[in-house]
Design goal:
The complex is a heterodimer of chains A (131) and B (198).
Chain A: H1 2-16, H2 28-44, H3 47-52, H4 56-61, H5 64-77, E1 80-93, E2 97-108, E3 113-119, E4 125-130
Antiparallel strand pairs in A: 1-2, 2-3, 3-4
Chain B: H1 6-32, H2 36-44, H3 46-72, H4 80-104, H5 111-136, H6 140-165, H7 168-197
Helix pairs in contact in B: 1-3, 1-4, 2-3, 3-5, 3-6, 4-5, 5-6, 5-7, 6-7
Classes of the chains: A alpha+beta (131), B mainly alpha (198).
Chain lengths: 131, 198
């Protein structure tokens, strides 16, 4: 019984642990600058720039109405006070090929926001999640 | 109220879920999700993350059930019916808290969420029966371990299936079969335990 449980946990770890190394075509500084720029545009509610720097697929999902919902969240968090912490990993799938995913903790006057920002090889926004 | 009254089992089953999830596990997860390393882990290892969430649900809910069983009924024998009533209260409280936001969403079909909750209640009755029955025969830790394992597997495989196949039907089918499996196994185990004792 114990062996079976151990095998099961090991199998989950083998399936669960994927490579997270950033593909070599990405530059960490450019990723950090792009992330900061995206957060600035969100704080400024600049839909035009956000849409111009997002993939076509992303723009299909994140319409102006959807962006307004994002802005409502950041407005509730208060005034932007800077980025506290950020980490980036590399991911790969059949739809996007190699891409970068950053988790960025941003400080606001009322509460912190954790952004999960995904960028493709052209540094276009292909995924965004806030909490 | 008598210590072995079914109403007490039902009410304590409800309270047990309230303590394990809304008052302990969910606030703890909310704090962890504000942590960059934890968020990074969820992005980097989504499958492992689902496993950790499933395991935490198993540990919190089954440990709370175990504490209730040991604290209130100590070494006393708890009947099969009362154990099932406790599990029903536990599952019903979860169903109420999960379904309340769904019901408030106008235009959402309730058939699938209701079916899913029904299976979850069956699983909770089975898990309680299993745990209480092992405590009855003085094999408490084995009962707790099995309950955590089955609870974790149910949550993990269901979430993993949904993530991989995006098929609600297949996920529901799995939840239904696994929950009935837990209940049937627990019922027969408890029946055997009682027969051996008498």
């Amino acid at each position: 019984m114990k062996k079976w449980i151990l095998c099961l946990i090991l199998a989950i770890f083998v399936v669960g642990c994927q490579s997270t190394e950033l593909a070599e075509q990405f530059d960490q500084n450019t990723i950090d600058e792009t992330n900061e720029q995206i957060i600035t545009w969100i704080n400024e509610e600049n839909v035009e720039e956000l849409q111009a720097n997002s993939s076509a697929k992303m723009n299909d999902v994140l319409t102006e109405e959807a962006w307004n919902q994002v802005f409502a969240l950041t407005k509730e968090a208060g005034e932007f006070d800077g980025i506290i912490e950020s980490t980036t990993i590399g991911k790969n799938d059949t739809t996007n090929g190699d891409y970068a995913v950053s988790v960025v903790k941003a400080k606001y006057t009322n509460q912190d926001i954790i952004y999960t920002i995904s960028l493709d090889q052209a540094y276009n926004l292909i995924g965004l999640y806030l909490k | 109220m008598r210590k072995h009254s079914p109403l007490l089992f039902f009410l304590l089953g409800m309270l047990c879920f309230l303590l394990a999830q809304p008052l302990l596990r969910i606030p703890l997860l909310a704090v962890l999700q504000k942590n960059v390393s934890f968020s990074n882990f969820s992005v980097a290892n989504p499958v492992l993350f689902i496993f950790v969430l499933s395991l935490s649900a198993g540990i919190f809910e089954e440990t709370m059930r175990f504490i209730f069983r040991k604290l209130i009924w100590k070494e006393e024998h708890v009947s099969r019916n009362n154990a099932m009533v406790f599990g029903f209260g536990h599952g019903l409280m979860e169903a109420f808290l999960v379904m309340a936001p769904v019901i408030m969403m106008a235009g959402t079909s309730l058939a699938l969420p209701l079916l899913e909750r029904l299976f979850a209640i069956v699983a909770h009755i089975g898990l309680t029966l299993l745990l209480f029955s092992f405590v009855n025969v003085k094999k408490s830790m084995l009962g707790w371990g099995l309950a955590v394992l089955l609870h974790t597997l149910l949550n993990f495989i269901a979430a993993f299936l949904l993530q991989q196949t995006q098929s609600v039907f297949h996920t529901e089918l799995f939840i239904g079969i696994f929950s009935l499996g837990i209940f049937t196994t627990a019922y027969f185990l408890s029946y055997n335990h009682e027969r051996k004792q008498s």
